[in-house]
Design a protein that fits this description.
Blueprint lengths: L3 H20 L3 H18 L8 H19 L6 H16 L4 H15 L5 E2 L3 E2 L3 H13 L3 H6 L14 H9 L19 H11 L22 H9 L16 H11 L21 H9 L19 H12 L1
Antiparallel strand pairs: 1-2
Helix pairs in contact: 1-2, 1-3, 2-3, 2-5, 3-4, 4-5, 5-6, 8-13, 9-10, 9-13, 11-12
Length: about 325
Amino acid sequence: MLNFDAGKLARGAMKELQKAEKLGGSVGEVAKNVAQGVKTVEALSDLSEKIPEPAVEMLRKLIAEAMKLAGASQGRNEALNDCIKKAQVLLDGGDFSMESVTKLTAELRSFMKDAPEETNGGQETVSRAAVKESTAAAQSAPAPARAQAAEVQFSDVESGAYYYDAVQWAVQEGIASGTSDTTFSPDQNCTRAQTISFLWRAAGSPAPKGQNNPFTDVAEGVYYYNAVLWAAENGIVSGTAFQPDTAVTRAQLSTFLYRNAGSPAVKGGSAFDDVPSDAYFSQAVAWVAEQGITSGTGERTFSPDTVCTRGQIVTFLYRAKK
């Protein structure tokens, strides 16, 4: 674990990033804070052990600041957005090895080497020259993550598995990542936070329109924060408690997909004996069956309360996108 001084350094970096965020600093200030955060992560990466939670939380804040910088750009900075997406996938995958964080740090650093400008009477903008140079640097630099995505190989994902194509698609599109360099863990249960994050990324990781957070158990700065805000704005989730760490069920997943599609009308009710017509998920289940996303767990059973695995989640998403 971290010694006292390194832990203090990580907490200090988080505090500075949070302070800049609360003060609504300019893009130039944001960039400087991001650069400082990068230096802190690099310092931590010299340690031989895996990064503990304080540094991970600090990294999440760093990503949040980078998202602000990307959002302030007058043009669409695709390279920076791709970098942010890879960072989010890394955090969601849970692989916090020193090597992975060092790679991520190096990529973020390439975008933050030129501080953005303030123009137009204090309006936050990003220097077009800086964006162009950062994008060119990212495109010319080696991209091992993209090269590996072209031929995904996990020891626990066999070519004949029902979720094989879905896993390939999810990883290549930056929707999900492996739980390690060699495993995807398709049979591992998926939480509500992870599921909404997958759905959000499949939709292109759109920025939420506002910062109204209706949930008391979703803290600002967590990796799924923007995904949950986006889902709430679009009526995919509701309530005052999101229960991010609770495993998602087949009924909930079907409902998320159905609402994301705009809650379209279905021809008939559910054909499953274990799906009551007055259940909140009745129309959603009928829709996913109608769309060929799932045929249930038996001839007339859907198993709505059964917990979903990572393999099932990406498969549902893959079929919903086709």
